[in-house]
Amino acid sequence: MLWELGGEEGSQQLWWPFTQHQGYHDHEKNMKQKRPTVIDGAKGDYFSILEDKDGTRGSDGTRKELVRKFHFDACASWWTQGMGHGETTLSLAAAAAAGKFGHVIFPDVVHEPAKALADRLIHSKSGPGRGWASRVFFTDDGSTAMEVAIKMGMKKFLHDLELKGTKLDETVTKLTVCAQRDCYHGDTLGVMDVAEPSVFNKGQHPWYEPKGLFLDYPTMSYMDGSIGISPPSCCPASDNPIMFESIGEILDIRKRLSSDHLYDHYSKVIEQEWDTYESESDRLIGSVIIEPILLGAGGMKFIDPLWQRALMDVSCTRSVPVIFDEVASGMYRLGVSSCREILGANPDIAAYAKLLTGGLVPMSVTLATDDVFRTFLGDSKAEALLHGHSYTAHTVGCVSSIHALDTYAELLENHHDSSNKVETTSQVIPKFVVDAYFDQQEVAALSNLPFVQQSMSLGTVLAITLEPDEKGSGYAANGKSVPVVRNLLKNGVYARPLGNVVYIMVSPLTKKEECSRLCSLLKDSVLTL
Fold first, then answer.
1. Is the separation of the CB atoms in 516 and 442 below 8 Å?
2. Which DSSP letter does residue 303 get?
3. Residue 167, Cα to own-chain centre: how many angstroms?
């Protein structure tokens, strides 16, 4: 039993992700050593955590008496939780698939769970690929889903060049991508290169080489109680936020396309940076990669959707495929199955994971248009998409995903009920994007707190950005965020900071009353600084 491990608790066997192990199990400084969180179970939105009763241990580091406490999982277990921990119907559906199939090989094979999931993803009312995607490629996690997406995008771009009579000499010109600054697409070697140098990649392996044009972007947030857009440095008067009446006004892309001068400016700047990049290097942009609306690992930043729409439109005029990385933002994380519902435009390729299986098992998918699929047709196997893993389209993951998507659709999708809509001048935004979870007045009030620069919430995500400390801002700047997170833990909320950002992420099934309680606890924790 885990609680019989005394002071060790696995720290001598386990190698944790994203963790500096120095300081764990230090016998000479036992009372100050780092200690892992002992999770003994989980149910719904809550962890069951074993803690020392009085916060102390014996002289040898062993536990003296344990108590069980329940903590809200405010990081949604790295953004995966969709149906809650230990959800019985989901577990039984997965168990039934395991009992019937175990695991079966997938190339040239059809089984009902894979076929049924593909149908839901590209044909159902709640499917993220409805109306644009024709094919589903199964992968194992978000990072590999993006690796596949880049292979698809590059192949499509080269194919289209050849149709125009152009043959790229890759010894002279290298294909690369256009992406957003602060982007993060995973930890496999290929997608690590689709990011600027940062703590996530620089020094992690000797092959790392940033390959791409990384564009600055405008963000939306509450500042001093009011909602606005902070333009990137390339915009005129970039020091002055552009204020709006409501989030709904910012998300009304149809109206802003025809009336907001920012669209023309965004497009012009994107084109200029694109042209300059290609003319001053031996690189040619072969795909555009977008994390729609939400930059997760980049600091829970919410991007002005009009800027992303401008980037998509510029890409379209240049016949460059657009890839959505919706691993974090898709599947109702922001209240919609895909952010294309907000942006008003479709990608060529899109990747999904995390919420896909309801938070039970790892699985990801890469969706693609028929045009993308057809670029891999040919007379030889070498022309096919030669990518896969041993557990491709595993039945447990497929059945879990079907169950999760059906649950999301039943509870969140009701396009005929006007009470579930937020009306704007020309566009209908699902209520689940704006106000179904966190109350926007409460979120706005957070931006008025001491040490808080800005606050923002869409869908199931709430984030505050604290004033920079002596380390500046970014992943390593946690001088103020760590005390806030510690105070949340004392009050039964398990959270993890992202540098100077503290966020709370709930599941799509979490009640609004619970979200209000969490927002209040976050406020109280900030006030302890």
1. yes
2. B
3. 36
